[in-house]
């Protein structure tokens, strides 16, 4: 489970950098990333997004590596940032994160896949690797 927790923390750091308002909302309400994205990461979006979209994500995952998981997550969050920022409570935030995986944005597979390569901006694997190392070290210290 260390790898799963590490990647969730990496996503949190990426959101802190790329979408600071969402990170501030999460921090302000004490919502841990593990509560809202565990299923995304554990099952690689199966039963989260439409099948056609999931299969396209997996194609990219096998071709480009694990950074695709972060691209998908960041795109979902960025595309729905205004909606997420409407949340006023812990429970409301959790519900908003369930809602952002539904609707026409994710069912229009071709458009969604184009967005995952443009919305998050630059996301080199070296950045992911560096963040994984630092987040893993923090988690190991925490026990």
UniProtKB/TrEMBL annotation:
Coiled coil: none annotated. One of its GO terms (molecular function) is GTPase activator activity. The keyword Glycosyltransferase does not apply. The keyword Isomerase does not apply. It holds the Pfam family RabGAP-TBC. Residues 1-65 form the Rab-GAP TBC domain. Gene3D superfamilies: Ypt/Rab-GAP domain of gyp1p, domain 3 (1.10.472.80). Keywords: GTPase activation. May act as a GTPase-activating protein for Rab family protein(s). This is Growth hormone regulated TBC protein 1. It comes from Myotis myotis.
């Amino acid at each position: 489970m260390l790898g799963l927790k590490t990647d969730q923390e990496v996503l949190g750091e990426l959101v802190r950098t790329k979408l600071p308002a969402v990170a501030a909302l999460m921090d302000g309400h004490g919502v841990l990333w593990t509560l809202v994205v565990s299923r995304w990461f554990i099952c690689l979006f199966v039963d989260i997004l439409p099948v056609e979209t999931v299969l396209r994500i997996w194609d990219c995952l096998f071709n480009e590596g694990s950074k695709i998981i972060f691209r998908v997550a960041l795109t979902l969050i960025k595309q729905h940032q205004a909606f997420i920022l409407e949340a006023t409570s812990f429970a409301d935030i959790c519900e908003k994160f369930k809602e952002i995986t539904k609707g026409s944005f994710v069912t229009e597979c071709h458009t969604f896949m184009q967005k995952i390569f443009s919305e998050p901006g630059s996301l080199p694997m070296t950045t992911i690797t560096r963040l994984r190392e630092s987040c893993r070290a923090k988690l190991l210290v925490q026990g």
